[in-house]
Amino acid sequence: MIKVLERYIAKTLFLSTAFVTLVVTGVLFLMMLLTELKSMGEGDYGILQALSYVLMRLPSELYQFSPVLILLGSIASLSVLSAHRELTVMRISGCSIRRIVYTILSAAGLLIILVGVIGEGFAPRLSYQAEVRKENVQHAGQAMVTASGVWFHLNNNFIYVKRIVDRQLLEGVVRYQFNAAHQLKAAYYAKTLTTKNHRTWEMNDVVKTTFYNNHTTNESFHSLNWNLKLNPNLLNIGLIDANDMSLLKLSKFVTYLRQNGLRASDYQYVFWQRIFKPLTSLIMAFLAVSFVFSIFTNMPFGFRILLGVLLGFLFFILNAMIGELCIVFQFPPIFAAFSPLFVFVLFGMFFSKRLVHF
Known about the structure:
Blueprint: H1 2-36, H2 47-64, H3 66-83, H4 86-92, H5 97-121, H6 123-138, E1 143-145, E2 150-154, E3 157-166, E4 169-178, E5 184-195, E6 200-211, E7 216-227, H7 247-259, H8 265-292, H9 301-329, H10 333-351
Antiparallel strand pairs: 1-2, 2-3, 3-4, 4-5, 5-6, 6-7
């Protein structure tokens, strides 16, 4: 009998979370599509490209909201059971509150595993491909992202960049310089290309190959100045957002930044957020149970959902604030990522005190 009740509770949680996810997906889709309207008309970027971009970005965006989706799904499922007096019947049938809590958390754990596989396995790749397609369509003729790097076309120069670390540092740069007759005049390879004002760039560890009619010459330079008028916004095309990286790729990028003495705190913060995301989702499910059996007991269904939404927004605001403080005051990223969880665990423990009396 108890097993049947547990399966019923889990089924209700799955269906409630699926319904909440469907509603949030619709809202996100409309908001993202409206945001893309301002980008339409840039290059060949039109409505079809915008629709494709939004659809490919949706899994990643939903993954960011997954803890809140599980929170709302848990609140909704328990509220439905409570509204139909099913929780009371279950308790009379021998299913204790502790058992209900255990069942909800176990079912939430299965959801978290499924969400994690999609969010870490497929969503980053889809999101990155969406960004690449969008940037290539918008900057057709000026820039193109490939699997191995980024190509720029500026005046008589074709420039290949293996890695855009940030808008002031490019790595693995190859410059092909052509004359007015479209003949290759010179090729430069630079280990890094740096700037402070986006007008004067400095090529470091340079090898220059000059092409003549019947021979070539090679020269090496420690550094060369390059009066390159490169639009800073164009460099965004090669930058990969931390949320568009898989955990493995993000970890490697953090290691790379630290080994080269570059600031990695932003990426470390996102990395630890992603590591703690399953725990965050489980804590949200625990919060939902604590609230439903304490302060939500006599509240209408709609009001419970509203408070759940507000709680979710509070979590995101707290995350954003602590993230900024981490950057400004140089707090350890792992501490900044875990702090909101600690606060919400305290909330859950406070409101769950009533559970011990059932």
